[in-house]
Amino acid sequence: MDVKGIAALVTGGGSGLGAATAEALAAAGARVAVMDLKREAAEAVAARIGGVAAAGDVADEAAVEAALDAAAALGPLRLAVSCAGIAPAARVAGRQGPHPLGLFEQVVRVNLTGTFNLLRLASARMAALEPMPGGERGLIVNTASIAAYEGQIGQCAYAASKAGVVGLTLPAARELARFGIRVMTIAPGLIETPMLAGLAPEAREALGRLPLFPNRLGQPAEVAALVLAIAANPLLNGETIRLDGALRLTPS
């Protein structure tokens, strides 16, 4: 898929992976709608890239429909990228008692239900478009995590939500293949995002030594580059790609 001239929606686009992805798509010629729970963050990125902003909860149908409307007003909606996510830590049974059920439900709602909400609503719109050369109508790119495979202590909610994203990738790709819509997922390792920015410098330095090569934290721009590579290669479909420098997480 040539992204030049198409419309794209990026959720979680106000910071981190989402902002980097929105910037890379715009630089490649796409017209980008930036959705974020924080309106000011979405507007700042949209202004920087010449896109449009939308605010709302990714698990809310009306909010995502409105964001898709904003994207579709820019051109044919061919690409949707889910980058919105949260990662609060809590132990299953800790000193404060059992894991709060509400927290588990919140993480699943944002990370898994929010991802599926965009996938179902965006793909329904893409299915109605005229196919491009080669028969492709659109592409959905989800964001999981290597925690889907090696969740650490305190990550039960996060790991379960991201494993759900990995799990829906292939069946969704199989179902949407008849429309010429691809579904792919990226599972990043340790990426230098706002989620890690709050850590002490020594903690961030220790994390940066974990990937085998390159022996450093990943950069949001590298995740964005993979989104563009997926778009460019029509044979990539129904798969989750680890982007982690050969890192395998230990229990803690």
What does this protein structure show overall?
One of its GO terms (molecular function) is oxidoreductase activity. By secondary structure, the chain is α/β, with parallel strands linked by helices. It has a single domain (7-241), classed as NAD(P)-binding Rossmann-like Domain (Rossmann fold). The protein is 44% helix and 17% strand. The longest helix is centred in the middle third of the chain and has 26 residues, at 101-126. The mean pLDDT is 96.
What does this entry show, briefly?
By secondary structure, the protein is α/β, with parallel strands linked by helices.
State the oligomer.
single chain
How much helical structure, as a percent, in the residues? 40-55%
Chain-averaged pLDDT: 96
Sheet with the most strands? Answer: 7 strands, parallel
Write out the CATH superfamily name: NAD(P)-binding Rossmann-like Domain
Radius of gyration, whole Å: 18 Å
Report the end-to-end length measured between terminal Cα atoms.
40 Å
What's the shape?
globular
Q: Reading side by side through the largest sheet, how are the strands ordered?
A: 3-2-1-4-7-8-9
Domains counted in the coordinates: how many? 1
Q: How much of the residues is beta strand, in percent?
A: 15-25%
CATH topology: Rossmann fold
Number of helices: 9
Number of strands: 9
User: What are the segments in which pLDDT stays under 50 over at least 5 consecutive residues?
Assistant: none
What is the CATH top level name? Answer: Alpha Beta
